[in-house]
Amino acid sequence: MMKVEYFTTTDFAVLSPSSTIRDALQIFLEKRVDLACVTESGKLTGIVTKYSIYRLLLKNAALDQSVRDGIKTQIIAIKKDMSLYAAKDIMMDGKVSHAVVLTDKGDIFGIMSKSDLIRGIMSEVQNLAERLSALLENLQDAVISVDESLMITTFNLAAKTLFQFDDKTTGSDIEHILPSFTKELKDSLTTGEIIEAKRIVVSNITVIASFIPIRQMNSITGAMVVLRDVTAYESIANELDTTNKLKRILDSALEFAYDGVIITDQEGSITMANEGFLDLFQFNNATEVIGQSIFTIAPELPANKSLEYQEVIKGELVTIQEKSCIITQTPILRDGLLIGAIFKIMFRQLEVWKDLLVRMEHLENELTYYRGELIRVANKDSPFSHVITNNPQMNKLLNDAFLAGQSFSTILISGESGTGKELIAEGIHNSSGRHGSFIKVNCAAIPADLIESEFFGYADGAFTGAKRGGKPGKFELADQGTLFLDEIGDMPLALQAKLLRVLQEKEFERVGDTKTTHVDVRIIAASNKDLWQLVQENQFREDLYYRINVIQLQIPPLRNRLDDIPLLCDHLIEKINKKMKKNVLGISPSAVHLLQSQQWPGNVRQLENVIERAFHFCQGYYINLEHLSDELFHSGTGQRIKPGQPVKDKGVSSWLQQINDAEKKAILEALQKVDGNKTKAAKILGISRSTLYQKMNQYKIKTYLDYASPPF
Question: Which residue in 200, 215, 232, 503 is a FRET match for 337, CA 20 to 30 A apart?
Fold first, then answer.
């Protein structure tokens, strides 16, 4: 604990009661202080401050007047051997900015100002921080701290060594780097409680982890995880446990062994003997032979060959107790040194032993069969196992996608909305063998003013509100992996130029940074638009189009693979069953036939919505026609119609047509009310903006004239 004397100003000003105001002002200027000690006969009698002199002058006192009227005798004094924190309390209680520092004998040692006190406390805090930092760095336990957003803020040398961290680790999301710690860190941040001694296995390392919330000004601002690598300890414990288990297994094996078995140490003293050996040599129990020399107990055995010459004997015929026996004996070596020998004596009926061998061969054949089955099942999974199809066109696409995954070229996936472009991209990444992450970006969903920082990240202090330490962008997160750019046709032209540079040079700068970051990222782009048409309309860069269109994969729409609908329905029903904990077994053939008669403009995504809706209305084991959406029927004639198709029978207004008319009228009225603002209209109708667009397409509401004067 630092003391007052180390931060006291000892070059202080001294006045006497007879000193004049002029003297006080002169010494204040010379010493550059705001306070002077007043002494008489060497003893402190009071203090004079700059402000007390000001008050005298305001009362028209002359410069040659004595300072006696400005002397303060109520002095706040502190001892020089006090701690800084004790001095702080005295000065705060006295509400003063200066205090006189005295020795133990009451002599003046100096003056402590508020700035001296702050300087001392800051020095002590810095000293404490340095000591804590040194302690943290030299801890054998690994320590990692995160902020409230789970971004890594600090880590010590032990953590750096344990997990191979580098300078880029700071500011990274721990959920991406060490996901095993995410749940407990979130719990500690949420509850404010310490989670102690939890065993976690991460990256083949076993650690005992404690999770501790970090508080600042009574608020939780982060958390830390303290880790102890116990992999070596567990290995030793497992080894000891395995040794004990092996001994118990060996004991059991010896007891149930069909032949006579004994084990000796390097001197030939018997350490273990089973019932077969005792029965052959006519002993009652093992205590009669344990510790005895094998040369005495079993002189018929050529034990010296294994114990003295370290020979291995296999199948030598000897006679023991007037019985023909086959012996096998082997020396036991450790690090090249003899530590004992094991002797096996086969003396029971050989035909029984032969039956045992036949049984073992049968078991080996079974094991070989099951091993082959396991390999066959394991090889069944593929990078595209999550894509459900039996369609030849789709299977060819998956084969092309697999081959494309083996290359390093940029891939463009085109297809209508809802056809599964992201699934194909993920499969390509899984088949590529790249060790990095699969990072997805929807170019149409990111605000234009944030899209650059989302792609390239930003440096510390790049803009107001930026996270401390900066933030990595999608390219950094996808380093050594794959970056999937969905809806790339909606990317702003300015960003297209920067993307082209990254693709060509494999480097970029964060927003607000001058440092160049090098990355190895494989780009997979996707769009439901005609990019070449966008190029012709100057909405997409031609050079970028050629750069990303090295390998093109076209996903067929669902209407071109209607044979996949039964398979897709079964998959979707199984998926929803797990989510809703129901037991719908499948879908009826008539319902499948109806689904196969549709055009599916929304493709697999639309089919999933239809099945999910039917699932909720299904109370039995199978989804039937009555559970499907009314949009799939013409209830008046029983003929199947496309969604939104008008009823041909003008004389009969079916209830479905009435619903469609009412829905169209509601949309037109909502659009008219908000002067065509689709976002506001969707809010009035209580539906999403994308659903509104689908409904407008369904009812052919295309222009403002359609809803300016509703025809109802």
Answer: 232
Residue 509 burial (C-beta neighbours within 10 Å; 0-12, 13-18, 19+): middle
> Helices (DSSP H) in 464-492: which residue ranges?
474-477
Query: Residue 319 has what pLDDT?
Result: 84
In angstroms, rounded to a whole number, what is the distance separating the alpha carbons of residues 115 and 353?
96
The model's pLDDT over 273-315, given as tens digits with 9 standing for 90+, comes to 988 888 888 888 888 999 999 999 999 999 988 898 888 888 7
* Residue 685 vs residues 130, 570, 659, 670: alpha-carbon distances, Å: 62, 33, 15, 7
Give the span between the Cα atoms of 492 and 477, in whole angstroms.
21
Q: Tell which residue, 612, 613, 624, 633, has the closest CA to residue 586.
A: 624
Going from the C-alpha of 357 to that of each of 330, 351, 364, the distances in angstroms are 21, 10, 10
- Which strand (E) or helix (H) includes residue 195? strand 195-202
For the CA atoms of 26, 28, 29, 31, the dihedral, rounded to the nearest 10 degrees, stands at 120
d(CA 208, CA 540): 53
- 319 phi/psi in degrees, rounded to 5: -115, 125
Over residues 495-517, the mean pLDDT reads: 81
- Spatial contact of 519 and 506, defined as CB atoms under 8 Å apart: yes
Residue 278 · residue 284 · CB < 8 Å: yes
- Is residue 173 within 8 Å of 155, Cβ to Cβ? no
Whether residue 645 is predicted with pLDDT greater than 50 in this model: the reply is no
CB 91 within 8 A of CB 114: yes
Task: For residues 556 and 702, give the distance between their C-alpha atoms in angstroms, rounded to a whole number.
Answer: 27
Judged by DSSP in three states, 505 sits in helix
Q: What is the DSSP letter of 462?
A: S
- The length of the chain, given as a count of residues: 712
CATH of domain 139-229: 3.30.450.20
Torsions phi, psi for 234 (to 5 deg): -65, -35
Q: What are phi and psi of 412, to 5 degrees?
A: -115, 120
CATH 3.30.450.20 positions along the chain are 139-229, 235-348
Domain spanning 235-348: CATH 1.10.10.10: no
Closest to 189 in 3D by CA, of 158, 169, 215, 159: 215
User: Cα 82 to chain center, whole Å?
Assistant: 50
Torsion, Cα of 533, 535, 536, 539 (10° steps): 100
For residue 644, name the pLDDT band (cuts at 50, 70, 90): very low
Beta strand 98-102 with 108-113: parallel, antiparallel or unpaired?
antiparallel
With a CB cutoff of 8 Å and minimum separation 6, the contacts of 48 are 15, 24, 35, 36, 38, 67, 70, 71, 72
The domain 393-556 is classified under which CATH number: 3.40.50.1820, 3.40.367.20, 3.40.50.300, 3.30.1050.10?
3.40.50.300
E strands, 217-259, in order: 219-229
**Which residues neighbour 245 within 8 Å (Cβ) at sequence distance 6 or greater?**
none
